Amino acid sequence: MLSLTWGEIEVEGVGRVRDAALFPGGGGPWDWNVTGTRHSPGIQPADVEPLLAAGATTVVLSLGQHEALDVMPETEDHLDERGIDVHVAETREAVRVYNLLADAGVRVGALLHSTC
């Protein structure tokens, strides 16, 4: 279960983080510096790899609360080629979708941006 305020995502079993990378069975902070992610061009294929490696069959990608974070077309292609269901949404909606899927037992992963 997740909760969200500006600049903070609270993840059950993990604690409070600014941005979250969640996968089946775990999660933690999402450090954009690892892959060099920026608002534009946005979430890269390398950002979703840890979610896939952990067995996610569905991925939720958030655009930020003001939808300032992009998703590279290559990222969506990368997920589509692997048969991964993808949900891209504003962060509050992304959290809602993630919670619904997780509660339903779906092997869901997510990249969630808590601000802009």
Automatic annotation (TrEMBL):
Record keywords, A-Z: Cytoplasm
Gene Ontology CC: cytoplasm
Subcellular location, principal: cytoplasm
Domain of life, per lineage: Bacteria
Subcellular location: Cytoplasm
PANTHER family xrefs: MTH938 DOMAIN-CONTAINING PROTEIN
Name of the protein described by the UniProt record: Mth938-like domain-containing protein
